């Protein structure tokens, strides 16, 4: 019993004299963030698009006269590259040569008729003048007596014969089928001995002097497009320059983007093929003295988080132009603002932060 009493007393003393735990003061955690310096710069926006290559000139060459194909030239095969006015086929000429001879004879006959009428008219005029002097009177001029209507009819007949001769010669010339431009043959619909009528399709031809490319761009990019700056066309490892021709008058029906027509002069047909898809880099006019910020830092509400005096704030920037990746901002930031690079989740304005010694950089 004595031992129990002594142990209980000692336990009571220890409990009463032991130090009591005290509530410590809560230490606030300051978040560590990375920032990027905001500074104005002069930078040219770019737009990377693409489109399908098409022919600037493509025609289905048809016959202008009827007849049998006398000869298709040896070079006139699909894929062949030919020059302007090069003969590619011939329609039999004999019928058209005979028509030219007939019209040449008609011209000679019409000329003889006119000469005869002029001679008779001159004779009638001399007889008229003689009669007028013998009668010693003033006779009124009579066009019919002077054969003026007959001469006019003979002149009209000559002009008609000359026109018919020119038409017959033109028909003869059209028996030679020629390239209308420098280009390639896509397909051929005739062979030696083929019978063709006026309007029959003979060849499908494409000009190789120029290709076209339609590229879609946002309508706000169209407003700042620099049409004087060459467009960079890329097809695989091949790269070359092209020219902006026009902005087309209608937008694309699917996404309401504007369309730019690009001219590719003297294309290499071994690299650029009609119907192939190529990339194109277009350049806008230079935007001077603007903040350039990556779009990932612009929130859905159009605001941007910044750090100023080691506190977080939201700014509402005035955007001049926004590309796929970057935005050109005219105003909306205050002196001392730095762009917040770090993702902090849910935070409020005025939150205290620590700035990392490693500063973020825009790419």
List the helices and strands and how they pair.
Layout: H1 2-17, E1 31-33, E2 35-37, E3 41-43, E4 46-55, E5 58-62, E6 67-72, E7 81-82, E8 87-91, H2 94-135, H3 148-173, E9 176-178, E10 183-188, E11 195-196, E12 201-207, E13 210-217, H4 219-222, E14 231-235, E15 238-247, E16 258-265, E17 277-283, E18 287-294, E19 304-308, E20 311-315, E21 318-322, E22 326-331, E23 338-340, E24 353-355
Parallel strand pairs: 1-24
Antiparallel strand pairs: 2-23, 3-18, 4-13, 4-17, 5-12, 6-8, 6-11, 7-10, 8-9, 10-12, 13-16, 14-15, 14-17, 15-16, 18-22, 19-20, 19-23, 21-22
In brief, what are we looking at here?
The protein is an alpha+beta fold and 363 residues long. Helices cover 24% and strands 35% of the residues. The radius of gyration is 46 Å and the shape is elongated.
């Amino acid at each position: 019993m004595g031992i129990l009493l002594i142990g209980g007393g000692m336990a009571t003393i220890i409990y009463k004299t032991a130090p009591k735990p005290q509530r410590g003061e809560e230490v606030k955690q300051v978040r560590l963030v990375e920032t990027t310096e905001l500074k104005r710069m002069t930078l040219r926006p770019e737009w990377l698009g693409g489109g399908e290559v098409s022919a600037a000139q493509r025609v289905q060459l048809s016959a202008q006269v009827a007849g049998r194909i006398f000869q298709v030239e040896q070079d006139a095969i699909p894929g062949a590259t030919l020059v302007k006015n090069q003969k590619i086929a011939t329609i039999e000429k004999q019928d058209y040569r005979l028509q030219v001879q007939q019209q040449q004879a008609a011209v000679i006959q019409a000329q003889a008729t006119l000469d005869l009428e002029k001679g008779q008219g001159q004779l009638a005029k001399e007889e008229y003048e003689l009669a007028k002097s013998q009668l010693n009177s003033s006779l009124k001029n009579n066009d019919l007596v002077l054969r003026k209507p007959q001469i006019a009819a003979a002149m009209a007949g000559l002009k008609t014969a000359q026109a018919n001769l020119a038409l017959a010669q033109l028909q003869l010339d059209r028996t030679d089928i020629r390239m209308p431009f420098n280009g390639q043959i896509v397909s051929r619909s005739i062979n030696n001995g083929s019978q063709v009528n006026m309007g029959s399709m003979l060849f499908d031809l494409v000009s190789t002097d120029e290709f076209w490319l339609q590229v879609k761009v946002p309508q706000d990019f169209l407003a700042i497009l620099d049409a004087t700056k060459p467009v960079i066309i890329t097809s695989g490892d091949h790269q070359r320059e092209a020219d902006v021709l026009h902005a087309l008058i209608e937008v694309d029906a699917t996404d309401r983007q504007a369309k730019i027509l690009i001219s590719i002069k003297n294309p290499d047909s071994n690299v650029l093929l009609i119907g192939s898809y190529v990339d194109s880099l277009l350049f806008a006019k230079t935007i001077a003295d603007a903040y350039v910020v990556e779009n990932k830092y612009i929130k859905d509400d159009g605001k941007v988080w910044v750090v100023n005096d080691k506190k977080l704030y939201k700014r509402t920037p005035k955007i001049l132009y926004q590309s796929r990746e970057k935005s050109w901002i005219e105003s909306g930031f205050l002196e001392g603002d730095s762009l917040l690079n770090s993702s902090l989740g849910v935070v409020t304005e005025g939150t205290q932060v620590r700035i990392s010694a490693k500063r973020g950089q825009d790419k």
